[in-house]
Design goal:
Elements lengths: L13 E9 L3 H11 L4 H9 L6 H17 L8 E19 L5 E17 L5
Antiparallel strand pairs: 1-3, 2-3
Length: 126
């Protein structure tokens, strides 16, 4: 019995990696995601390596995971991969407070994000 397995949502020439609870706001993470969308994986890795944003190291780790998934699980050619999708979503927001003057409270929000990265193999140009 039990449930039937879900169909694979990606094509045969695609691989995905997903990161949950990345400790930055979705708005800041999306700036890094925009910088690598559409680039070949080697260029995207070098772009992330030299990026001055703190969160770029986590995105680099996620991209390396997607490349490893493509190579090991789906037998795709690593040299022909490019970043097809890089989508960012909102996760939980931790709420904290800081004491302010006259008994008031300053609210501090600590946002988290999710990121989905899809790499695709380029077709051979004839």
């Amino acid at each position: 019995m039990g449930k039937k397995a879900l169909e694979r949502q990606l094509n045969d020439n695609e691989a995905m990696a997903f990161a949950k609870q990345i400790r930055t706001s979705p708005r800041k993470l999306n700036l890094v995601a925009q910088s690598i969308r559409g680039l070949s994986c080697s260029k995207a890795l070098s772009q992330l390596m030299f990026s001055r944003r703190r969160i770029a190291q986590d995105v680099k780790k996620l991209l390396e995971s997607a490349i490893a998934n493509a190579e090991n699980n789906h037998q795709l050619d690593v040299d022909r991969l490019y970043v097809a999708e890089a989508s960012v979503g909102k996760a939980l927001v931790m709420k904290r407070f800081r004491a302010r003057a006259r008994g008031r409270v300053g609210r501090i929000e600590k946002p988290f994000s999710n990121m989905r990265l899809v790499v695709r193999e380029r077709e051979e140009s004839i």
